[in-house]
Amino acid sequence: MEDIIAFDAGHEDLLHDLAYDFYGLRLMTCSSDQRLRLWAFDEAAGTWVPRDAWKAHDAPVLRVVWAHPEFGSIVASCSMDRTVRIWQEFEAVPRLPGYDHAALPATDAAAAAGPYGPSPWIERARLADARAPVHAIAFAPPHLGFQLASAAADGLVRIYHASHPAWTLMEEIEVVPVALRSQEARICLDWCPARHVPAMMFKTSGHDWNPMIYRISAQNRWKGYEVLAGHTDLVTDVAWAPNLGRTYHLIATACRDGHVRIYKLTPKPPPGHLFGGDEGPPHRGHRFVVTLVADLSDHAAEVWQVRWNVTGTILASAGDDGTVRNWKAASGGSGGWRCLSIINAEVASAQAAPSTGTGGAAPGLSGLPAGIEQSPRDAYGHEPTGPPAMTPFGAHGGGYGYGYH
């Protein structure tokens, strides 16, 4: 397994999130310093180099995501300032010292100013419907069109559609009742990537530890269906596995109770319906049988992120023990999951790990990686959305990034 590459992320405050583009050659970071920073991997130098940086919001930036490249070079960011902003890259913008970008619209000109010269990243939309900080955003799979979901602390999930030249608010879904909303009420989002399940979506809220699956009902309304039971604390992340020819779905959750859980969703057609033939897999009106197939507590600490690989066969999890753990289904059809490897930023290497199945931290891997300790609050006095955590392809926290390449 390849080494971790450490680099100074250049942010002046807590680093909240990073996201790789579709090809894994560029990454975007966001921070409480209100900035987005773009990095590109330099193969000759073997490190990540800065390409752009600009002030993106008026408060800490909590999440950043890339759109599918078929829609162009586009990212979305969300913030404590209650907005979601859409950024588009225009390579035609010259990157020369002293470039006169007065010809650009005023909002574009402001976005174009950056420490690396005029930025080709232009703000294309500002979505300000939320009445509380926006904690999560997710682009829909490309086969569903150019859509974006956002989740705010006001208990609502909003779905936007890109209709030239603006973004239109299509749906507002109340997932946390007003009486149950609190500072802990955060919502995680992930879309179902499968083409044969129309607009399936997944959310979890802070008032109830157990996540619920939402999808469009036969009445063409978003409705909550199956519950993923077994959580004993706040769910911090969710990930729906890519479905490549499987007859079932896999969903992973990260939880503050120190567990990574993997659920299997098996289609269950309505009574009297024969599933098969040319009708395709089940969708509206069908239910799923939910089975907990793995309950992994090896982190022995709060777990903050889970991500699947492109085939949905390997799951990566990141926790407060300062490690990324890669999981794979055990061979032989036993139904269990084993720890394939452990990535520890402190030693900048990947270690083979024995399978424990249900728990037990590997020796010598406790504590956060050196240099990425988290302050209890950022410079604005806000509680962070999570501690420094490593994504399946890197780690982030404090002012350092860990690129995995």
UniProtKB/TrEMBL annotation:
<keyword id="KW-0677">Repeat</keyword>
<keyword id="KW-0811">Translocation</keyword>
<keyword id="KW-0853">WD repeat</keyword>
<dbReference type="GO" id="GO:0051028">
    <property type="term" value="P:mRNA transport"/>
</dbReference>
<keyword id="KW-0813">Transport</keyword>
<feature type="repeat" description="WD">
    <location>
        <begin position="228"/>
        <end position="265"/>
    </location>
</feature>
<keyword id="KW-0906">Nuclear pore complex</keyword>
<feature type="region of interest" description="Disordered">
    <location>
        <begin position="353"/>
        <end position="393"/>
    </location>
</feature>
<dbReference type="InterPro" id="IPR036322">
    <property type="entry name" value="WD40_repeat_dom_sf"/>
</dbReference>
<dbReference type="Pfam" id="PF00400">
    <property type="entry name" value="WD40"/>
</dbReference>
<dbReference type="GO" id="GO:0034198">
    <property type="term" value="P:cellular response to amino acid starvation"/>
</dbReference>
<feature type="repeat" description="WD">
    <location>
        <begin position="8"/>
        <end position="39"/>
    </location>
</feature>
<protein>
    <recommendedName>
        <fullName>WD40 repeat-like protein</fullName>
    </recommendedName>
</protein>
<keyword id="KW-0653">Protein transport</keyword>
<dbReference type="GO" id="GO:0031080">
    <property type="term" value="C:nuclear pore outer ring"/>
</dbReference>
<feature type="repeat" description="WD">
    <location>
        <begin position="54"/>
        <end position="88"/>
    </location>
</feature>
<feature type="repeat" description="WD">
    <location>
        <begin position="296"/>
        <end position="332"/>
    </location>
</feature>
<dbReference type="InterPro" id="IPR001680">
    <property type="entry name" value="WD40_rpt"/>
</dbReference>
<keyword id="KW-0509">mRNA transport</keyword>
<dbReference type="GO" id="GO:0005198">
    <property type="term" value="F:structural molecule activity"/>
</dbReference>
<dbReference type="GO" id="GO:0015031">
    <property type="term" value="P:protein transport"/>
</dbReference>
<dbReference type="GO" id="GO:0035859">
    <property type="term" value="C:Seh1-associated complex"/>
</dbReference>
<dbReference type="InterPro" id="IPR037363">
    <property type="entry name" value="Sec13/Seh1_fam"/>
</dbReference>
<keyword id="KW-0539">Nucleus</keyword>
<dbReference type="GO" id="GO:1904263">
    <property type="term" value="P:positive regulation of TORC1 signaling"/>
</dbReference>
<dbReference type="InterPro" id="IPR015943">
    <property type="entry name" value="WD40/YVTN_repeat-like_dom_sf"/>
</dbReference>
<comment type="similarity">
    <text>Belongs to the WD repeat SEC13 family.</text>
</comment>
